Every structure is written in C-alpha cells, then in structure tokens.
Automatic annotation (TrEMBL):
It comes from Bauhinia variegata. This is Uncharacterized protein.
Amino acid sequence: MGLENSKSPDEILEIFRSQWPNSTVYNLPNGNFMALPHEESPTHPGLLRDRAPCPPDQVVKHLEGKFAFIIYDANTSTLFAARDREGSVEFQWGMASDGSLVCSDDTNITRDGCGKFCAPFPPGCIFINGSGLTSFDHPLHKVRAIAHKDDHENISTVFVQVDLYTRIPSIPCSGSASNWADAVVVEGD
C-alpha cells in the first residue's frame, strides 16, 4: 500500500503517550482505541441516535461556532467525525501503517505517526465509516480530493472540494405527488 512512512497504531499510541503521559486510553472493538490527553469520560450513549430521524448531516449543519469532534458508537461500531465550515479547530487525520484511521488535534502526532499520509480534516465535512466523507452543506453531491504535486511529482497537499455537478443518487420519498408526476410506467406484454 506504500505506507512505509507510517507507523503502526501501537507506535502512534506511544508517540501520543510520550507527549501526554497522563493520558487515558479506551479500548474499542476490533483492536481499535481512543486516546485522550487527560482523564475524561467520552461516553454519551445514544448521542447519534437521539436525533433520529434527522440525518447526521442535517444535525451538524445547524451547529454554530468552532468545533471538531469524533463520536464513536460502540453499539453499532460507527465512527462519526465532523469539523466546522471554517476549519477553526485544528483537526488532522491520517493513515497508520496497517491502514487504520488516525485522528488528532495535534499535528505533530499525526505527522510523526502517519508520515506523509496525513492532512487536515476537510472543513465543513463529516465522515462516517461505511459512508465516507460528505459535505454537511451539500450532502447530495460528491466530495472529491484534488492532489497537488511538488516539483518532484510528490503529492504535497490534498484539497477536498464539493463537486456540485455530480449528484449522489438518493431514494425518493414514497407517496410524494411530485415523484409520481415524473414517473414513467412501462407495461409488459
């Protein structure tokens, strides 16, 4: 996979612990973990589910102010991450040598742990494992990564941009009169 500059998750955890000796580590399913710089409880059961039936992008879209956060729902093994529109709060993500996702508000940890396989988490976006990266202002349009290369053809930066010309297929509402007006009926012999 070409992740030779990345470290293993255990090595990244050691980098984190060297900078934050009083950190707290929470073990998650499948060998994953969450490390916090000091002792605090990250548990708020059902936080994602409490807003149902609103889609997550609609919930985050209405948040105001500076924010970057990660929510892990242990019941569904769902990881949810978001960052405000302006990117006001430092938030990096990258990839460990085994392909694991690494997220931190400390650029030194992600840079030391992930090598060149890290970047700022895109402002105005949410990430849900299984669904991928989405703009919370334009959830029905694809988000594309655009790589910029230096003079030696190495990727130097990656920008994320909403492609307003590419729409993600969505399921129409059932029973909507407007959906039926555009329907085409094909009858067989």
